[in-house]
Amino acid sequence: MISTRQLATFGLILTRGYNRPAMHEYAVTENVVDIVCRHAVKAGARRVRRVHLVVGELSSIIDDSVQFYYDLISEGTVAQAAELVFRRVAVEVECGACGYVWQPADADWTCPQCGQAQARVRAGREFYVESIEVED
Ligand SMILES: [Zn+2]
Q1: What radius of gyration, in Å, describes the C-alpha atoms of the chain?
Q2: 56 - beta bridge partners?
Q3: Ligand 1 centroid to 119 CA: how many Å?
Q4: 123: CA distance to ligand 1 center in Å?
Q5: How far is the CA of 117 from the centre of ligand 1 (A)?
Q6: Which residues are in the CB-under-5-Å shell of ion ligand 1?
């Protein structure tokens, strides 16, 4: 019987500033592995089983690429062979004119309340490690 527990990590990963898509995924995954290892070691865990990631619909993160790079980068660490679980966050915008908040169904961000096109993104750009499940 292996005891497991879930640790909140809240490791925010910066996804801006990378131009090439492949580099982008590699760099953010390095960040993920770094955060996971740091928290697992600090908690005295033997092994990381699952990593829960929160991914905004606008963050252009491709799940399969992240898992691919994760397996490469985490090899030989406490985080090796963990399963990545992705939670997608829908796009939510706020009208700059009237303050109305909604989740646009497509690329048309015209305010359904007042008809202005001044929408600002409130949610959907995030990418972070929410929690990890570890074995003691
Ligand atoms: Zn409006």
Answers
A1: 18
A2: 89
A3: 8
A4: 17
A5: 8
A6: 95, 97-98, 100, 111, 113-114, 116
Rounded to the nearest angstrom, the distance between the alpha carbon of 110 and the centre of ligand 1 is: 8
The whole-angstrom separation of Cα 66 and Cα 74 is 11
Q: Over the range 1-10, which residues count as b (16 or more CB within 10 Å of their CB) and which as e?
A: eeeeeeeebe
pTM: 0.80
* Strands 47-56 and 83-89, sheet pairing: parallel
What is the architecture of the domain spanning 4-91+122-135? 2-Layer Sandwich (3.30)
For residues 76 and 110, is the Cβ–Cβ distance under 8 A? no
Regions of the chain short of the pLDDT cut 50: 1, 16-20
